[in-house]
């Protein structure tokens, strides 16, 4: 297969990035892997380093840079949002409650997609809303699978405990009753990326009068199914 795009400098830059996909490389290693002349390989690697697409490890070898991870995350978010609309709409229709999708951003979580109830009292969280990571079933989901140190920090001041998060990991879903806001209950489940890392939480929320004090009994299966559909969409588009 001809890998030439007709733009020589881009083709050579792509060769450098592809060579680094298998791990760190010295300049000599890059030359050997790409077939480029030594000055060309060096010039391209340094230029890519300027744009953070290439970096250096502690031994000075060339490695893939942080900008590629940022672009990959953005592409993953786009895929997630492209799939979210129909899944959240179906979840709303099945449960009769407002459905949301949250992503973590630092110490907060952001509602990146939602499907509102069509009638009656709307217990909605508008898209773009920023909520704390200290309370609510979605916060529990986004926290439960964190590495120990970040988990320990996140639990300080939280309305839920390490024991509660252990239960979340075991069940695969979380519920909250009046935890974030009085009178509101919610159920959430994890959306996982191709590497199985939790990348988002899908939720339904509504008044305790409708969801009861055990909302998981009513809606956990529908939430878990919706999360599985979104996780599968991410795996499919990444494949």
UniProtKB/TrEMBL annotation:
One of its GO terms (biological process) is negative regulation of DNA-templated transcription. Residues 67-236 form the IclR-ED domain. Gene3D superfamilies: 3.30.450.40, Winged helix-like DNA-binding domain superfamily/Winged helix DNA-binding domain (1.10.10.10). The keyword GTP-binding does not apply. It holds the Pfam family HTH_IclR. Keywords: DNA-binding, Transcription, Transcription regulation. Residues 7-66 form the HTH iclR-type domain. SMART domains: HTH_ICLR. The keyword Glycoprotein does not apply. One of its GO terms (molecular function) is DNA binding. This is IclR family transcriptional regulator. The lineage of its organism: Bacteria, Bacillati, Actinomycetota, Actinomycetes, Kitasatosporales.
């Amino acid at each position: 297969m001809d890998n030439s795009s007709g733009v020589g400098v881009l083709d050579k830059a792509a060769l450098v990035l592809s060579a680094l996909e298998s791990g760190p490389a010295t300049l000599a290693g890059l030359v050997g892997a790409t077939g480029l002349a030594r000055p060309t390989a060096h010039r391209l690697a340094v230029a890519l380093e300027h744009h953070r697409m290439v970096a250096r490890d502690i031994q000075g070898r060339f490695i893939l840079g942080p900008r590629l991870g940022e672009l990959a995350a953005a592409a993953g978010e786009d895929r997630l949002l492209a799939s979210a609309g129909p899944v959240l709409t179906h979840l709303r229709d099945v449960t009769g409650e407002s459905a949301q999708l949250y992503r973590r951003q630092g110490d907060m979580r952001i509602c990146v997609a939602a499907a509102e109830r069509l009638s009656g009292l709307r217990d909605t969280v508008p898209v773009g809303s920023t909520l704390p990571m200290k309370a609510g079933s979605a916060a529990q989901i986004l926290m439960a699978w964190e590495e120990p140190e970040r988990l320990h920090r996140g639990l300080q001041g939280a309305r839920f405990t390490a024991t509660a998060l252990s239960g979340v990991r075991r069940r695969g879903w979380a519920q909250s009753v009046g935890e974030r806001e009085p009178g509101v209950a919610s159920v959430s489940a994890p959306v996982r990326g191709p590497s199985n890392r939790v990348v988002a939480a899908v939720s339904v929320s509504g008044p305790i009068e409708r969801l009861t004090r055990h909302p998981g009994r009513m809606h956990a299966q529908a939430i878990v199914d919706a999360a599985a559909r979104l996780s599968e969409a991410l795996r499919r588009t990444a494949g």
